[in-house]
Amino acid sequence: MIVVDGITKSYPLLGFRRHYVFRDLHMTIPDKRSVGIVGRNGSGKTTFLRLIGGVDQPDRGRVTITNEGTISPPLGVSTGTAGNITGRANAKFVCRIHGDDDYTMRLRLEWIERFAEIGEFFDLPLSFYSGGMRSRLTFGIAMAFDYDYYLIDELSSAGDQVFRSKASRTFRAKRGKAAVIMISHNLRSLQEECDSGIYVRKGEALWFDDIRDALKLYAEEEGVDVPLVGEKKK
């Protein structure tokens, strides 16, 4: 499980003021659950994901994984990569962190290159990449490894519909073996892909065992149309 224990996170504003994203936040995220995060723009969804992934540090409190599992970096346009080196070099760096030998690294790099579908750009610096190409690379790098928790920030930015369908199939295969925690503005996709939900609003994050309940409250409070389909997940 991921245990969020008394997290407070803020950012400085002009003068001595601070903007508090979360205050004394507590939450437990169960193992092997697909979790969708919903909330309006600027509510703190990405900050929440970055805190879980260890990319951002809280002012107070801590995030722990009780089973000592492994967790991916948040997968999105700008996380987990260095812009001044090539896609291949970025992938090699991650392989070395995971302790790959030369043979395993070669096979993994071949898989990442095929999966990302960015052609010759794999050997160009990331500063030449579009946002979608960065997403495809970071998603491919993460999917090449077996984590206990995958953090996904807006999968819909990762290329065209064909690639998004392939990406969805790939992380769907992880379900039951690993936990997938994802942000998406495609609320129908969240309902189809996720079991449970987190609604981020007004400095708090609310846990729902069923994703439909999170989407229903979000729709009621924000006045948006959420197409709830079928019965609640078992």
- Run of helices and strands: EEEHEHHHEHEHEEH
| Number of beta strands | 8
Number of domains: 2
CATH-derived architecture of the largest domain: 3-Layer(aba) Sandwich
Corresponding CATH superfamily of the largest domain: P-loop containing nucleotide triphosphate hydrolases
Low-confidence stretches: none
Strands of the biggest beta sheet: in what spatial order? 5-6-3-7-8
Q: Give the integer mean of the pLDDT values.
A: 85
Summarize the structure in words.
This protein is of the alpha/beta class. The protein has 2 domains: 1-43 and 53-72 and 148-229, Rossmann fold (3-Layer(aba) Sandwich), CATH 3.40.50.300; 77-146, no CATH class. Helix content is 34%, strand content 24%. The chain has 7 helices and 8 strands; from the N terminus they run E-E-E-H-E-H-H-H-E-H-E-H-E-E-H. It has helices at residues 45-53, 87-97, 102-116, 131-143, 161-172, 187-193, 211-222; strands at 2-12, 18-29, 34-38, 60-65, 149-153, 179-183, 196-201, 204-208. It has a 5-stranded mixed beta sheet with strand order 5-6-3-7-8, with helices on both faces. A 3-stranded antiparallel beta sheet has the order 2-1-4. Helix 5 links the parallel strand 5 and strand 6 (179-183). Helix 4 runs parallel beside helix 5.
